[in-house]
Amino acid sequence: DQQVKQNSPSLSVQEGRISILNCDYTNSMFDYFLWYKKYPAEGPTFLISISSIKDKNEDGRFTVFLNKSAKHLSLHIVPSQPGDSAVYFCAASLGNTGTASKLTFGTGTRLQVTL
Amino acid sequence: GAVVSQHPSWVICKSGTSVKIECRSLDFQATTMFWYRQFPKQSLMLMATSNEGSKATYEQGVEKDKFLINHASLTLSTLTVTSAHPEDSSFYICSAPSLGGPYSYEQYFGPGTRLTVT
């Protein structure tokens, strides 16, 4: 049972344009969401997060939007740069159960930013 | 920022042997660490939660006798794959919460260990 889904396995975007990565979840008890970036043969690195009490969080070129009613979140990267090419995972946490650190990951979206 | 290291970064072993993977938090203490595995082109699947001073808690479907976890100190957790078989070949990643305990949302991930069982 995949509780966090990223339906687009890959995405190609031209440099300078906006990249939009989507993530859907099924468990309404998730109260915190995170995006991680991962290069091959490396561990994920944290990008940005959002609490369920918010609908938007922005950090530089990265913005995460949360639509709780639709159980959907998205990561916007603008402008996209070649160095952004990686696999992006969204993750969700059941912080209100007392194990905030336990994350459920999506299946990942491979972003390729072309010149 | 905080760093989590793993050793070895890759290992090849013969079927039936055991392999130990170490996960260390380098500049912070972690009472909780997590172990994940990732198959090619798939998501990171949580295997178990490593707890300093107590037994690890395993996710459903993960054999605790096969994947032995020991949280020896506040900076070290080890995962031992016992009697490894080719189907255990995977990328194993550990993580530690940024605040060291289970109540921190953000985690620092190690670089991962590629295990190949022949």
Description:
The complex is a heterodimer of chains A (115) and B (118). Helices cover 0% and strands 53% of the residues of chain A. By secondary structure, chain A is an all-beta fold. The mean pLDDT of chain A is 92. In chain A, the strands form two sheets. In chain A, strands 2, 4, 5, 9, 10 and 11 form a six-stranded mixed beta sheet that branches. In chain A, strands 1-3-8-7-6 form a five-stranded antiparallel beta sheet, with no helix packed on it. Chain A is globular. Chain A is built from no helices and eleven strands. In chain B, strand 7 and strand 8 form a beta hairpin. Chain B is mostly beta strands and 118 residues long. In chain B, strands 2, 4, 5, 6, 9, 10 and 11 form a seven-stranded mixed beta sheet that branches. A four-stranded antiparallel beta sheet of chain B has the order 1-3-8-7, with no helix packed on it. Chain B is globular. In chain B, 0% of the residues lie in helices and 52% in strands. Chain B has no helices and eleven strands. Chains A and B meet through strand 4, strand 5 and strand 10 of A and strand 4, strand 5, strand 9 and strand 10 of B.
